[in-house]
């Protein structure tokens, strides 16, 4: 009888799939949680390293006077303050998922979505370890508010984070990706969308720019100011920063010198007969927009909006409390905006100077000795 029980137990061990590291997870729940933890630790190390390298690189080029106009523009489009914290958490999450996919790929036949082989508990663990799960924790709204909030939180009592800064964009239509959750269309050559090939981005821009000048007709009702006003409104409603890294998170590949596609690198390929770039093997460096944490569905990549999505002149007043306080004149109780104490424009007030440790405006134009201005958005102060 004991021998029979032992044989039955051995048979059960052989038949029932065991969740072991290094074995193919055939069904949901067979990925070891220890592997999930290891990938998250590695993701944090890689993301922090990439962030630090980018920060030190741009500082070095600014101090040496070698920073190009493109690099200076990139500097002002980097995530800062609370936006940087939110983006870093989302990067932790997506890089950890990428590492998990890389480790499981040799064990699974064909393409797969890594989130499909993780349990809800494991996905929740990733959200907590990355910091995404805590971004909306503790948002409580008072019953009555005399004024709107700078961050946009609680402006909608039923949905406190609706329109708030540093949240994912609210979509009219769900995001569509090549793999269903992250890869943009055009990432894999030959993959069609709706049965049609995806054109190269460079080919589309060439076709638009190549529009015959003689076919252009002036608008009889609107001037150029109409476009400029629209651009100002756009700057009030949304801003998605560039990645805080210029290397591939997992491999360390330099995105600015390589044509390989590795997140966040998404270089633009050169189409045949390009009017300016003759080498079709060359490419244009391009980077994916910063991701956002979404607690409702962490498996689908969304982009972050660093500003309040309300029409509230956030480019003037800011979208975060610390910045809003810096933009105010706190020497009295009049509630006025801070102005420049050193210069004016024929009696008209100018923006105050920013107090940057490594001021790019000073470093790139040492003879003028004029610091960057401070405004509700970084681009407005340059």
Distance between the ends: 85 Å
Task: Please tell me what the overall shape is.
Answer: globular
Helical/strand content category:
mainly alpha
Low-confidence stretches: 1-24
Number of structurally distinct domains:
2
Helicity range of the residues? Answer: 25-40%
Strand content: 5-15%
Strand order of the largest sheet: 1-7-6
Q: Major β-sheet, in short?
A: 3 strands, antiparallel
Quaternary structure: single chain
Order of helical and strand elements: HHHHHEEEHHEEEEHHEEH
Task: Write a structural description.
It contains ten helices and nine strands. The chain is mostly helical and 382 residues long. The protein folds into two domains: 32-137 and 151-197 and 237-312, no CATH class; 313-381, no CATH class. The strands form four sheets. A three-stranded antiparallel sheet has the order 1-7-6. Strands 2-3 form a two-stranded antiparallel sheet. Helix 2 (33-64) packs across helix 4, helix 2 (33-64) packs parallel to helix 5 and helix 4 (81-104) runs antiparallel to helix 5 (120-130).
């Amino acid at each position: 009888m004991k021998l029979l029980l032992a044989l039955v137990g051995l048979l059960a061990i052989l038949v029932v799939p065991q969740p072991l590291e290094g074995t193919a997870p055939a069904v949901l729940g067979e990925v070891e949680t220890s592997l999930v933890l290891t990938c998250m630790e590695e993701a944090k190390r890689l993301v922090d390293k990439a962030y630090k390298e980018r920060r030190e690189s741009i500082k070095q080029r600014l101090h040496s006077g070698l920073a190009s106009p493109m690099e200076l523009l990139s500097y002002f489009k980097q995530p800062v303050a609370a936006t940087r914290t939110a983006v870093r958490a989302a990067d932790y999450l997506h890089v950890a998922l990428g590492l998990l996919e890389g480790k499981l790929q040799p064990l699974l036949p064909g393409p797969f979505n890594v989130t499909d082989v993780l349990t809800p508990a494991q996905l929740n663990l990733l959200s907590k370890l990355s910091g995404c799960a805590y971004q909306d924790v503790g948002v409580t709204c008072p019953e009555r508010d005399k004024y709107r909030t700078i961050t946009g939180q609680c402006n909608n009592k039923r949905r406190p984070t609706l329109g708030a800064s540093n949240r994912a964009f609210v979509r009219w239509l769900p995001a569509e990706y090549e793999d269903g959750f992250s890869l943009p269309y055009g990432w894999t050559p030959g993959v069609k969308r709706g049965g049609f090939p995806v054109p190269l981005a460079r080919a589309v821009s060439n076709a638009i720019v190549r529009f015959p000048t003689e076919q252009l007709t002036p608008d009889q009702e609107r001037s150029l100011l109409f476009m400029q006003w629209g651009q100002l409104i756009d700057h009030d409603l949304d801003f998605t920063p560039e990645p805080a890294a210029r290397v591939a998170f997992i491999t360390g590949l330099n995105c600015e010198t390589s044509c390989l596609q590795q997140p966040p690198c998404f270089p633009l390929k050169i189409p045949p007969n390009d009017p300016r770039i003759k080498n079709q093997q060359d490419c244009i460096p391009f980077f994916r927009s910063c991701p956002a944490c979404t607690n409702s569905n962490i498996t689908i990549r969304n982009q972050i909006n660093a500003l309040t999505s309300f029409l509230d002149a956030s480019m003037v007043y800011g979208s975060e409390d610390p910045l809003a306080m810096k933009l105010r004149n706190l020497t009295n109780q009049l509630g006025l905006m801070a102005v420049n104490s050193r210069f004016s424009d024929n009696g008209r007030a100018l923006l105050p100077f920013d107090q940057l440790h490594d001021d790019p405006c000073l470093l790139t134009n040492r003879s003028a000795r004029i610091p960057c201005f401070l405004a509700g958005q970084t681009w407005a102060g340059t």
